[in-house]
Amino acid sequence: MPYPEQLIAPMRNDLLQLGFTELKTPDQVDEILGTEQRTTMIAINSVCGCSAGGMRPAVAVSLANEAKPDVLLSVFAGQDLEATERAREYFTGYPPSSPAIALMKDGELVYMMERHQIEGRHPLEIADTLKAAYDEHCSAPDTAGQSAASAD
Q1: CA distances from 52 to 24, 47, 67, 102, 123 (A)
Q2: What's 70's DSSP letter?
Q3: Measured on CA atoms in the order 107, 112, 113, 114, is the torsion positive or negative?
Q4: Whole-number mean pLDDT of the chain?
Q5: Residue 92 sits in a domain of what CATH number?
Q6: Peptide bond before 99: cis, by omega within 30 degrees of 0?
Q7: Three-state SS for 86?
Q8: Which domain holds residue 87?
Q9: How many domains in the chain?
Q10: What angle do CA 41, 144, 62 make, to 5 degrees?
Q11: Nearest 5 degrees, angle CA 115-CA 79-CA 43?
């Protein structure tokens, strides 16, 4: 049975304020994950303390990194049950975990942070681990191209 929306709304907003798009149905998950070729982060959000005290704050800090995912998505475990289940189908080789953070590139899973890698760790430690994954799998913005474009 899903959690009441009033209970989880503030937890959803933590990621929405960072620019995440929520996926609430299996069709939405397939529509994006089945076709997206850019580097994509999928955060499996949850009501647990390690999500509130670790995952969500760490994600916020990690996104200040120069290299970062192009697309930010989330599903909410315990609320958007079918969407969460469908997203997990894209994480081949990993058991269900919440919270969790997946990075996909060109439609393939390239990095997975599971609950056991979040639980009990300080958000800054988690953020550093995420930044290292971004540095390996994501591209930094082309600042030279942006400068030239803004000079027009």
Answers
A1: 20, 7, 24, 17, 10
A2: S
A3: positive
A4: 91
A5: 3.40.30.10
A6: yes
A7: helix
A8: 5-135
A9: 1
A10: 30
A11: 40
Residues of the chain with pLDDT under 50: 145-152
Quote the CA–CA distance of 59 and 34 in Å, as a whole number.
23
Residue found under tokens 């998950």: 29
Q: Report if residue 47 sits inside a domain.
A: yes
* pTM of the predicted protein model: 0.89
Question: How many Å apart are CA 45 and CA 51, to the nearest integer?
Answer: 7
144 part of a folded domain: no
Q: Which residues touch 19 (CB under 8 Å, ≥6 apart)?
A: 63, 72
**Considering the domain boundaries, does residue 66 fall inside one?**
yes
List the structure tokens of 93. 């080789």
DSSP 114: -
Q: How far apart are CA 119 and CA 54, in angstroms?
A: 7
Catalytic center residues? 48, 50
Q: What is the pLDDT of residues 48-67, one digit of tens each?
A: 889 999 999 999 999 999 99
